[in-house]
Write a structure and sequence with these properties.
37% of the residues lie in helices and 22% in strands. By secondary structure, it is α+β, with helices and mostly antiparallel strands. It folds into two domains: 242 residues, Bira Bifunctional Protein, Domain 2 (BirA Bifunctional Protein, domain 2, 2-Layer Sandwich), CATH 3.30.930; 89 residues, Rossmann fold (3-Layer(aba) Sandwich), CATH 3.40.50. An eight-stranded mixed β-sheet has the order 1-5-6-11-10-9-7-8. A five-stranded mixed β-sheet has the order 13-12-14-15-16, with helices on both faces. It has a three-stranded antiparallel β-sheet with strand order 2-4-3. Helix 1 runs antiparallel to helix 5 and helix 1 packs across helix 11. The longest helix has 20 residues. It is elongated. Bound molecules: adenosine-5'-triphosphate and magnesium ion (MG). Adenosine-5'-triphosphate binds next to strand 6, strand 10, strand 11 and helix 11.
């Protein structure tokens, strides 16, 4: 019954999972708002061209991972594999260039047809930010610092390290590209098929290859850092200077690339050693060429994206707990409607009330324990006649008689 299984690489998030998931998203949005980034919600599908043209036709995402389909009107659409292209599209089509700098936060599902494994899904979720219209390195510092503060808020700065590189300006990259191709041409016999096709169109991506043979060749390749011109070096120094001022530690990683042509200057990743080879938790860079390449006004940009599942997994299962409920326990059918009204009153006052719906008192008490309720309100007809109920602290077992009028005041300590 394949149809009754979730599609490979997709998951249902039951309440405990979704709570941990939402906590990451909410924290990210709060931190982003502290930096002045407002949320943008773009469609989860776009015209295929939005991704195909911007991610480049040699990238893994475009060649192997996109969910592309033709809809009933014959439009070629793609479920978004990432959201920078979608945000840039919205920036252009929404005429946002008038109001730069534009600071945007997003969250939501992304889709990639990858080989599923722990921390690698086909529908996964990202939180991310894009800063558009800022040319100088202060933008890079602010955006990286936003990522750092998010990891800090999640308690993860001690378990991850910032890797940083400069891809230089277009001039530096051109010079480097020639040096790299000259070097790689001497080792064609050892390069993978993929890398051979990348050689003409996007040789920088070979630096990022996971193929063994490629890696051996790459180990001896010239370094981009040796080909940076003065402008590029100065830019990099101002970024690292800003990070140092903020006390954000980083490791210089000369092999870190974002292979796409529109990336320049700063490239960075926060990496953890706790998730095996799925260790990149937050990755980004500067993409000054993107908006222009998509047909918009030349606009510099920088941003990052982080995988929500990986962040939630790193934090562990105990990081977020559900609020503990108060169980409403009528002792008999004659007081059920009073109990219901009382629950209604307390919920309106902001308390978390669990109704058992049926069963005798013993059964309802059992359920209260099973859901780890913090307290129980026991409603009996004699007590009600006197305007009271019993409130039991389920942690200590202590029970007291409480006047209906004082209920909210007494329950505050069980919130
Ligand atoms: P990787 O090297 O792990 O494939 P990537 O370079 O494809 O990562 P990006 O496109 O930069 O990743 O996406 C940013 C973040 O999104 C990643 O660091 C990761 O946390 C998360 N991510 C990417 N792909 C997946 C996936 N298939 N499942 C879960 N999370 C993912
Ligand atoms: Mg990938």
């Amino acid at each position: 019954m394949a149809a009754l299984q979730p599609v490979r690489g997709t998951h249902d998030y039951l309440p405990d999972d979704s709570r941990a998931h939402r906590a990451v998203e909410d924290t990210a949005r709060e931190v982003a708002e502290r930096f002045g980034f407002g949320e943008i919600i773009t469609p989860i599908f776009e015209f295929t061209d939005v991704f195909a043209r911007t991610l480049g036709d040699t990238s893994d995402i475009v060649t192997k991972e996109m969910y592309t389909f033709e809809d009933r009107s014959g439009d070629r659409l793609t479920l978004r594999p990432e959201n920078t292209a979608g945000v840039a599209r919205a920036f252009i089509s929404g005429g946002l260039a008038q109001s730069v700098p534009v600071k945007l936060f997003y969250r939501g599902p992304m889709f990639r047809h990858e080989r599923p494994q722990k921390g690698r899904l086909r529908q996964f979720h990202q939180v991310g930010v894009e800063l558009l219209g800022v040319e100088g390195p202060l933008g890079d510092v602010d955006v990286i610092s936003l990522g750092y503060q998010l990891l800090d808020a999640l308690g993860l700065t001690g378990r991850s390290i910032l890797h940083l590189n400069s891809l230089g300006d277009p001039e530096s990259r051109q010079v480097y590209r020639e040096a790299l191709v000259a070097y790689l041409s001497g080792h064609k016999d050892k390069l993978s098929e993929d890398s051979l096709t990348r050689m003409d169109r996007n040789p920088l991506r070979i630096l990022d290859s996971k193929d063994e043979g490629d890696r051996e060749v790459v180990a001896g390749a010239p370094l981009l850092s040796d080909h940076l011109n003065a402008t590029s070096r100065d830019f990099m120094e101002r970024v690292t200077g800003g990070l140092t001022d903020l006390g954000i530690a980083f490791e210089y990683d000369p092999k870190l690339v974002r292979g796409l042509d529109y990336y320049c200057h700063t490239a960075f990743e926060f990496v953890t050693t706790d998730l095996g080879s799925q260790g990149t938790i937050l990755a980004g860079g500067r993409y000054d060429g993107l908006v222009k390449q998509m047909g918009g006004p030349p606009t510099p940009g920088i941003g990052w994206a982080a995988g929500v599942e990986r962040l939630a997994m790193l934090r562990g299962e105990d990081a977020v707990t559900a609020p503990r409920a108060i169980a409403m326990i009528p002792t008999g059918a004659d007081v059920e409607s009073e109990a219901l009204k009382l629950a209604d009153r307390l919920r309106r006052a902001g308390f978390t009330l669990d109704l058992g719906y049926s069963g005798n008192m013993g059964k309802r008490m059992k359920r209260a324990n099973k859901i780890n309720a913090r307290a129980a309100i026991i409603v009996g007809s004699d007590e009600l006649a006197q305007g009271t109920v019993a409130v039991r602290d389920l942690d200590s077992g202590d029970q007291e008689t409480v006047a209906l009028s004082a209920l909210e005041a007494v329950l505050v300590r069980f919130r």
